[in-house]
Amino acid sequence: MLIRMPAPTGRLELPHPKRLIWQAGWSVAESLGLPFGAYVVITDLVSPVAGLLAGTGVVWLLIAIRKLVSGSASALLMISALILTIQTAVAISTGYLWMFELQFPLANLAMCVVFARTAPTRKPLVTQLASEVVALKEHDHPGLHRFFQGATWFWSGLFLLLTLGMGIMMVTEPFKLFMLLSTMVTLGLTAFGAAVCAVWFFAVLRRLGIRLHFTAA
Known about the structure:
By secondary structure, the protein is mainly alpha-helical. It has two domains: 11-93, no CATH class; 102-211. 77% of the residues lie in helices and 5% in strands. It is built from seven helices and two strands. It has helices at 17-45, 48-70, 75-93, 97-118, 125-133, 142-172, 175-208, and strands at 10-14, 210-214. Strands 1-2 form a two-stranded parallel sheet. α1 runs antiparallel to α2, α2 (48-70) runs antiparallel to α3 (75-93) and α3 runs antiparallel to α4 (97-118).
């Protein structure tokens, strides 16, 4: 006769909601908002290539400041640097339009590889992002570790899907429609991926008997 053992219990700590919103907002603004803002402004004033150079310069400047102040840069900031560096290098390597479009599937392919490389390790990339963006403290429960590994593989698969989709759109759609569709598909899949991981995460916590706990302000 098999005896079902009770699920291990515990808790995960998150900062107070106000601090959580501030930390998540600053992390996204630093890694995405500031470089993208520089890209949009300089693109409007000068050209798309100049915009990419400005965005890339901003993100590497932020990394340098982070290194000087704290000795390390966040994973999200490094991801932004990787994407913008690839896009800028491809965009300025030639004047051909298809080379400018190629930056988008190549950047997504690089993200696919980065996530896939860390997925089977002891510290998958989603673990680092959760720690940096929402200050989720590390937990040694093997069930949670398997979730973070699975979520990292999941995001790797999403970026591969984006790579294939953008590669097809490159050869089937005109430039303006390609830019519109690539933006819409990227935003849509990113939102979908975030929603899936959130539902998946809470389901894992419930199954493992782990509760979320917010610290005092």
